[in-house]
Amino acid sequence: MTFFDLARRNVSRHWLRSILAVTGIVIGVIAIASMGILGNSIGLMFNDMVTDVGDTIVVSPAMSSGTTAFTERQVNDIARAAGSNRVIPFASTFDTVTVGETKSGAMIYAMPAADIPFLLEKEAGTYPRDTGAGCMIGSKLAENSKETGLKLGARVQIGNETLRVTGVLKERGMGFDINPDYAIIVPYRWYSNHYDEDEYDQVIVKVRDVKDLDAVKEGIEEKMNRREDVVNVMDTKAILESVFAAADSITVFLMGIGAISLIVAGVSILNVMMMSVTERIKEIGVLRSIGTRRNEVMRMFIYEAMILGVAGAIIGGVLSFGTGYLMTAVLVGNPDYLFNPTSLLYIVFGMAFGIITSAASGLYPAWKAAHLNPIQALRHE
Amino acid sequence: MPVISFDNVTKVYPLPAGDVVALAGIDLAIEKGEFVLVMGPSGSGKSTLLNIMGSLDVPTSGEVTIAGKQISRMSDDELTLMRRDHIGFVFQQFNLIPLLSVVENVEYPLVLKGGRPGSRERAIEVLAAVGITETHLTHKPGELSGGQQQRVAIARALANDPDFLLCDEPTGNLDTKTGTAIMDLIARMNREEGKTVVMVTHDPRMTEYADRTVRIVDGRLA
Fold first, then answer.
1. C-alpha dist (Å) from residue A271 to A144, A275, A305
2. Which residue from A113, A362, B126, B166 lies 20 to 30 Å from A34 (Cα-Cα)?
């Protein structure tokens, strides 16, 4: 027989009350764990959607200066400022594409044929050449070939010209430069002839060493914006960081909602423990009078709160798997995110928070019990 | 050396309406092996005397020595250990712990002392000495009669082999016949085991069991 034993027996003496208090903790743990998992999954989803382009600088025309596109000369200036790093200018438009009888709209990106392999990876086929009438299609277009007819080897009519699909790109995800998954990539020479264009929308600079990113960025700004702001220079690293910071804020916000329910549960444990103390004033008086020290009485009541907390945390932790699965499957659309270690950590976190909340809620009642005057407690009826 | 000694002990309760003097200069010595009755009308200071003897309270002035130790300046923990190791309480309402079985109630003070091996055997031995048979060991206190509960309470008081038993109206909740049996048990512990007994009571019939009766009126020994 120990103080833990006494605590355990008192919890089971009032089993209904204990179950209700445990239920509160269970709900709190589930709320905090599944909200954390949801927030984390949103972050993971962002991560998957965005290509890892931490080494990319995107130079776009500064609208304030009235510039809407870059000339060949401006591109050359940017290239000079970028030093030995690869500079990829591109243009884009939206057009109707026809394959056989099927017409559909698609984004069309144009860049020098020699640059395509440096920006985009291919899944199948070959990269188009500047001289030929070839193009590449994005992975999602290729996946939907049943509807659009776009597949490797297909003949695509744009305007009055026909291009052959020479290659399919690897899936790239959402990018801050271009989004090629649903697009058609054509060599700039063909684009320039076909649309009678000789300007570029934006310039992508691939920085060989990420450490040079800031220096290259500054170099371009210095050269191009000497008199007035002609270009805007963004690096994707900074954008990514702000996106992930936003995802983190979402997680914190969602967990805050979960934490509120856990605090409510904590209050219910406090209430149960206060009832337990009030009902047992006489018993506490007896325990104290026959030689139970204050810290021993305190321990007994904290054990009681901890038993409720640990039971609630374990049940809540197990059930969090279920709700976490539902959250990620229904709201995020990918239950695999649940099994990511960072997601599972939120279950551990929820459980820990549940136990801490219970222990903290038990602290005051335990202190109150321990500091009752034994004479008055003995007289209590 | 006396087991309990009071040297000019006063106890004053400060109240908004004015101080209440519960004990006004008590001198008292109780020797080892004595059976002492404390009698007095309600409000005479009997309970205060009992509380101080039981190390539940300390005097306002004067000195109380219990088992050779002065208690006036003891901390709460020291007073608690005093109660645990030197004093066996027997209450009018038995005051057993309802969550614990009979044998666990008796074992509890031994567990408080660190739960040495053999504490269960010691509890069974003391229970046998007060007339509680093995069949009742696992019962909860609520399943026993009043007389049996008081026997268990006496066993609990004796478990740690205290210097004295402090009994507060131990027969007050029992019928005459059971009360007599309990008094016989306490008297036997005093005569045969040499246990010092201090008993607070209203019942003048108890004087026949005691070596000495101390009467208290208005906070003074009469």
1. 60, 6, 11
2. A362
